[in-house]
Specification:
One of its GO terms (cellular component) is membrane. It comes from Microterricola viridarii. One of its GO terms (biological process) is GPI anchor biosynthetic process. This is Mannosyltransferase (PIG-V). With 411 residues, this protein is mostly helical. The protein has one domain. It is built from 21 helices and no strands. The protein is globular, with a radius of gyration of 23 Å. The termini are far apart.
Length: 411
């Protein structure tokens, strides 16, 4: 009788308010539970951000003790604001040595132009509207992430995976004027469609995603490996010719979109290497101006940070350890498609990215791995992970976001 009364939404006689609240929570729709987790995480993160903003001194972006929206629009947020107001330069700026300097071509157009369009419609200024767009997209990511995880994990573990995402060390970025939230939402949608084998719907998602954050080539590799895998297991999991052609076509389309922004920059500036030269300008402060040689940046960075032979040896160990991680039982439980994506994106980062303080932000697209941490059901274990996540949020905000003099740790 007590269970029946709970199903009807009434409180069982003699139950305390906490028990009644738990019953209502467990009987609530999945999306409401995800939204509750997301809201609680944003309250915690916003509190941390406001505490840090209250002691932030004047810097290149704000004055002393900035308000929340000013504080949330620092660093790359200012580049996105510049793009929304003035677009991209047709002539690349150069530094004193004649090399291409940092400029807006390093940042893709979907996020700033979306915010700009909403500004025109609503009349709301850039700073609060950019934060709102990021928050809305972050909520969308949390909802889609749950739908991904529920395909491979029990409901409780799927929801805890969402909690790990919402309380993750870099989750403050989900409410800053960065394109990460919007990109992660599009990525979560693309991965869900891939898991459901709804290949035709991937075309528009990939088109927008590839112009939000660099991702087209990594996703093309994931799709290509997906096609190879499905072909290899076609006897136990049929892979009709129509699906094979469609999946291969979307992989090719993703590869094209992976170089679309490079070609757009080349057409606009008249310089075929304008995009790569712009990206290389950000690492010149560390290792000077060098050509991009695939699969060397991690070794260059390790040598700069730790010296030889320790640095390069550590990179080799990291590669081997990461490869082994993908075959552990907890990660294997996530399924082939998510593991293929994580491996493809890792290979992309290894090929082109120069690790420095923003490496943690660049690892965010690997968020499906959080599902592997969500399997154990121990309350102590889960509580500890959330506490660690919040503690690392504060550490990242202090090191990566807060500005202390001539700060060399961009987020």
């Amino acid at each position: 009788m007590q269970h029946a009364s709970a199903e009807r939404g009434t409180e069982p006689r003699g139950s305390n308010p906490l028990t009644a609240l738990r019953v209502r929570y467990r009987l609530s729709p999945w999306w409401l539970r995800v939204m509750a987790v997301f809201l609680l995480s944003r309250i915690v993160t916003t509190t941390l951000v406001l505490i840090l903003a209250s002691v932030q001194l004047a810097n290149p972006w704000t004055g002393d003790h900035p308000d929340y929206f000013s504080f949330a629009n620092m660093w790359d947020g200012r580049w996105y604001q510049i793009i929304s107001g003035w677009g991209y330069p047709s002539e690349l700026p150069v530094d004193a040595t004649g090399h291409v300097a940092e400029n807006a071509w390093a940042f893709m157009p979907v996020y700033p132009l979306l915010v700009r369009g909403l500004m025109e419609v609503t009349g709301i200024p850039w700073a609060p509207l950019a934060v709102f767009v990021s928050l809305a997209a972050a909520l969308g990511t949390a909802l889609l992430f749950y739908r991904m995880m529920i395909r491979v994990l029990p409901a409780g573990s799927a929801l805890f995976a969402v909690a790990l995402f919402c309380f993750a060390p870099l989750s403050p970025l989900l409410q800053f004027a960065y394109a990460e939230s919007l990109y992660l939402m599009l990525l979560a949608l693309a991965l869900l469609l891939l898991m459901e084998r709804r290949y035709a719907l991937l075309f528009p998602v990939i088109a927008v995603m590839a112009l939000t954050r660099p991702s087209g080539l990594a996703f093309a590799l994931a799709l290509g490996l997906h096609v190879v895998y499905r072909f290899a297991v076609r006897r136990r999991d049929p892979f009709p010719a129509r699906e094979a052609v469609l999946a291969a076509s979307v992989a090719l389309f993703s590869a094209v979109m992976g170089v679309a922004w490079l070609l757009a920059a080349a057409v606009a500036t008249g310089d075929l290497s304008s995009y790569t030269d712009t990206e290389l300008s950000w690492r010149s402060a560390y290792i000077g101006h060098q050509e991009l040689v695939p699969f060397t940046p991690w070794f260059q960075s390790a040598d700069w940070w730790l010296g030889s032979p320790l640095g390069p040896a550590l990179v080799v160990l990291l590669i081997v350890g990461f490869a082994a991680l993908l075959f552990t039982p907890a990660v294997r439980r996530l399924g082939v498609d998510l593991r293929i994506w994580v491996a493809s994106y890792a290979l992309y980062l290894l090929a082109v990215f120069f690790p420095q303080s923003s490496v943690f932000r660049l690892l965010m697209p690997m968020f499906p791995l959080l599902g592997a941490l969500a399997v154990p059901r121990s309350r102590v274990y889960r509580g500890a992970l959330l506490v660690i996540g919040v503690a690392l949020q504060w550490g990242w905000l202090l090191i990566g976001w807060g500005v202390d003099g001539l700060d060399w740790t961009p987020p």
